[in-house]
Structures are given as structure tokens and as C-alpha cells.
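Record pair follows.
FIRST:
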Amino acid sequence: MSVHEFSHGWVAYKLGDNTAKYSGRLTLNPLAHIDPIGTVLLPLIIFIATQGRFVFGAAKPVPINYWALKNPRRDMVWIGLSGPLANFIFALILSLLLRIGFLPLILNFILKNLIFINVILGVFNLIPIPPLDGSRVLMGILPKNLSSGYAVIEPFGFIIVMGLVVLGALDTIIWPTVNLILRYLIPNF
């Protein structure tokens, strides 16, 4: 979560927006990215409601001032891609550490789980449904009239995503992709 949110803020900062910096969000400290509802309450409620079979949560979104960006449409594509890309790069680095070998069993377990979590976060966030990062990418590459029309669904995005999760519709996209990536990152997966 911290790697993901930090990367959004860092890329926005590099592209001209100081908002994340002045908000204290250019940090890997997880406390800066915790949202009391999305990071604590929502996952707890879902975990209890599904008897531990499913957990879903969200970090506090990094604030971005689109008007401060040098080229808002193009830059939002890069900012949107930066979070999932950071998750994939972090998973790759952890995978390299895992391949060192002769690691204590607990460290091996932790690294595998961190790789798994980061790959899921990266893949899930690339889904082009607002407010997920994939929607930022799609809005940045669509023609302006289609992008504006697409942006209208953002207030309903969370409901759409949760509906697709509950219906299992995302399973055909997420899990095969996650498993494919994990086969390359985790030895003997």
C-alpha cells in the first residue's frame, strides 16, 4: 500500500504537482496512507462478514491537483500506471531476495506473501473502473468526449467494483493474470 501510494505522489511531484509533498504523502510510512474507513473498518467488516474468506480495503488516495500538472491528460496516465508498476517492481525485488536461498522459513513465508499481495494490488488496480488506476490510464488515452462520458460513472465505481467482486466476474481476469505473474516470481509456485 505504501509503495503504491508513494509512487503516485512521487510521479505527480515529478510532473509538476506539489500537493502530495505538501500533504505529507511523499513517504513510505504506512501511517501516512491509512484511511480509517478504507484501510481499517471496511476490511474488518468484510473479513467478519465473509468469515475470513475475503478481505478488501483501500488506502487514503494521494491528493493530486490535475491543473498543476504540465500535461494533465498525459500525466494522469503516468500517475495511474505508477502505482501498479511500483507494486510489480517491488514484487520483483522481493522475488530476487527470495531466490537468494537459505532464508529462514518465516522470512521465506513473509516474502512470498508480500509478493502475492503486491501482484494482486497491481493487477486489481489496473482494472479500468473508476476510481481504480486503470480508469485513469483509460481516461488519459480515450478521446476527450469519450473520456468525459466515461468519467461520469466514477461516483458509482466503488459499487460497480464491489458488485463485480461479489458476482465473481473479476475472477476470470484477476486470478489467471495473478497466477501467471506469480509463476515467474515465486519459485515452485
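SECOND:
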Amino acid sequence: MRTFLSILVVLTFAIRLPAEDTNVPTPPKTNASAPMKIGTGEADKYYDKEMIVTGKVAQVTIRPTVTFLNLDKPFPNSPFTVVIFHGHSSFYGDVNALRGKSIEIRGKIKNYNDKPEIALDNTNQLTVFDSRGMIITSSILQSTNVPAVHQSTNAPPPSTQSTNFPEIM
């Protein structure tokens, strides 16, 4: 009986100890509002949701008023597209430098012609990685060799560039 009483007393105190006193690590607090990171193939399951989509820029297509970054595969087989409307974006770097780069794009996934896309409105939405996985966004965005995206919405890009993208506009 005495042993049972001793165990009961020990358990009572152990139950009342706060978690920080038991030397048991507590799981890190997570930000429930942080967007989930997904690949391009999953994006069509998350329309109208704020997400981070990862992929490799397979094709860059520049038109007079818009630029398309097709991820993982070129048009029309691309599972995901990043859209940059000229004059409505703070992206002012050499967009062609993104070709072949792995990127993350953050934003609300929209359904356009049954394909998922995110419109780039701010450079904070875009993270660019080199082949080693190191972030190189700032060097891409500050490049001024060919400013493919500029503030004027009426003027064409400064240089005419050929692409293999079929004319869709």
C-alpha cells in the first residue's frame, strides 16, 4: 500500500509540472497563415488559394504587354505559368535570365483556360535559385542588360526577341 501511495504522489507532481520543466522539447510554433509550398503539378488543386509554387523556368515568352514564364515544360504542355503584365509589376530585370532557373512564386493561384497561373505583381513574390539551390534573386532582378519588363504599357519591349511560343494574343 505504501508503494502504491508513493507512486500516486510522484505521478500527481509529474502531471502538474509545466512542459518547460520536464526537459521535453516543445515543437516549434508554426505560422498557420504561411502559404504551403507545392510543385507545379499540384497547382491545379489549389485554385484561389495563396500558395508557393516551385518549378524550373522552361520557357520565357515576351509579348508587347505581357511576359509568360512557363514552368517545367514549354507551352502548351506547361503545368503552370507565371504571368508578368508590363506596367503592373515591379519586376524590372532581364526576364530571359530566368530561363533554366529553379524558382518559387508566391501568390494566389488563378484558373486561366483550365491552367493554373500566378500573376507577378511584386518582386517579393519571386525567389530564384542557382543550380546549387542558393538564392540568386537579387542579382537577376538588378540585371539591366535587357529590361524586358518596363513601366510603359503602350510601348513594346526595347528589343525584339524571337521565341518558340505560338502567337496566342
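COMMENT: DSSP finds two helices and eight strands in the chain.
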